UniProtKB/TrEMBL annotation:
<dbReference type="GO" id="GO:0016491">
    <property type="term" value="F:oxidoreductase activity"/>
</dbReference>
<dbReference type="InterPro" id="IPR043143">
    <property type="entry name" value="Mal/L-sulf/L-lact_DH-like_NADP"/>
</dbReference>
<dbReference type="Pfam" id="PF02615">
    <property type="entry name" value="Ldh_2"/>
</dbReference>
<feature type="region of interest" description="Disordered">
    <location>
        <begin position="301"/>
        <end position="331"/>
    </location>
</feature>
<protein>
    <submittedName>
        <fullName>Ldh family oxidoreductase</fullName>
    </submittedName>
</protein>
<comment type="similarity">
    <text>Belongs to the LDH2/MDH2 oxidoreductase family.</text>
</comment>
<dbReference type="InterPro" id="IPR003767">
    <property type="entry name" value="Malate/L-lactate_DH-like"/>
</dbReference>
<dbReference type="InterPro" id="IPR043144">
    <property type="entry name" value="Mal/L-sulf/L-lact_DH-like_ah"/>
</dbReference>
<dbReference type="InterPro" id="IPR036111">
    <property type="entry name" value="Mal/L-sulfo/L-lacto_DH-like_sf"/>
</dbReference>
<keyword id="KW-0560">Oxidoreductase</keyword>
């Protein structure tokens, strides 16, 4: 049953696209980006979907993001490529990279496509799920769009949340889709808590005194913590090398904070990969074997007080279908923010009758 406060996905896409067009984004590009942003919310990645519209509009307005980029392939081999995003909205370069990686994997068994001069592109799951739906394995990673993490044992902010995602086909309704930050929490979750006036749990951030930081409004006064201590730090550095340095993109002190600086080009680095099981003699056998192993894992007796075992991606397909059918229920803070943006740009509010702010 549809939620009375839900907004149809198509209506939300149209609003986002129109807002982007108001900042000079061509109609076709605006439709592509809006579609991916709403798709993020449809699959449950609310901190990286329409929630980011205000940030994107600010960077377009400030000149740090090119509204009409010429996304191009600047290096190309049978199995690899590098894409130049021309400082445009990151979704455009990453969607191009994803599609090219899949194309190369069909021909060569593997496709690895790097991106430079990109921007924030939403959740990496958007760029690995299609590989699994095509019967392939997918991987993607990115240098975070701001530095919130010091090197392990240090105090200088030289690393971002540097996310990584994997996908794989499996027989059944849900492919394996695993998307994570290399920090205990993504900065988007903290910004969501701030928008809703809620505190952070202990363990997400610490202040420069080393004590827990729980006020999201003071996030600039502390550090995000890496997953697994030095292990998360090492993984974050490895991602920075593959997504940043390898592509001629920003890493370390070269990273621009895309929220506080709306005028500078970020040169965000990312990569997308696709791997075809057929190149290993597996074909559809991979999905069958994966499903068998996953079934064993789900059948494992839960620990006392724990829910049954789930695999990353479980339930996403059904939840997405429900949201496509019934609409999207956004948080009160986000609904107010979208109405405020509508007022700023002279657009019809997506949530008429509700307050803006």
């Amino acid at each position: 049953m549809a939620d009375a406060g839900a907004i149809p996905a198509e209506g939300l896409r149209a609003f986002v696209a129109r807002a982007l067009e108001m900042q000079g984004v061509p109609e076709a590009d605006a439709a592509t980006v809006a579609g991916l942003m709403v798709e993020a919310d449809i699959y449950g990645y609310g901190t990286h979907g329409v929630f980011r519209l205000r940030q994107y509009l600010a960077r377009l307005k400030g000149g740090g993001c090119n509204p009409a980029p010429k996304v191009s392939v600047v290096q190309d081999t049978v199995a690899t490529a590098v894409i130049d995003g021309d400082d445009g909205l990151g979704h455009l370069a990453m969607a191009t990279a994803r599609d090219l990686a899949i194309e190369k994997a069909r021909a060569a068994g593997i496709g690895w496509v790097g991106v430079r001069r990109g921007n924030h592109a939403g959740p990496l799951a958007l760029y690995v799920r299609p590989q699994a739906e095509a019967g392939m394995l997918g991987m993607a990673a990115a240098v975070g769009s701001a530095n919130h993490v010091p090197p392990y044992g240090g105090t200088d902010l030289l690393l971002g949340t540097n996310p990584i995602a994997f996908s794989a086909p499996a027989e059944g309704p849900d492919p394996f889709v695993f998307d994570m930050a290399t920090t205990v929490a993504a900065m988007g979750k903290i910004k969501t808590l701030l928008q809703e006036g809620q505190p952070m749990p202990e363990g997400w951030m610490v202040g420069r005194d080393g004590l827990p930081l729980t006020d999201p409004g003071k996030r600039s006064e502390g550090f995000l913590l890496p997953i697994g201590g030095p292990k998360g730090f090492g993984l974050s550095v490895a991602i920075g090398l593959m997504a940043g340095v390898l592509n001629g993109a920003a890493f370390g002190s070269d990273v621009v904070d895309f929220t506080s600086d709306t005028t500078s080009a970020t040169n965000t680095g990312q990569f997308v990969a696709a791997l075809d099981p057929k190149a290993f003699g597996m074909g559809d056998g991979f999905a069958r074997q994966a499903a068998r192993v996953f079934a064993e894992m789900r059948a494992s007796e839960p620990l006392p007080g724990h829910d049954p075992v789930r695999l990353p991606g479980d339930g996403k397909t059904a939840a997405a279908e429900a949201r496509r059918r019934d609409g999207l229920t956004l948080t009160p803070g986000l609904r107010r923010d979208l109405n405020a943006l509508a007022s700023d740009y002279g657009l019809e509010p997506p949530f008429p009758g509700e307050a803006a702010g």
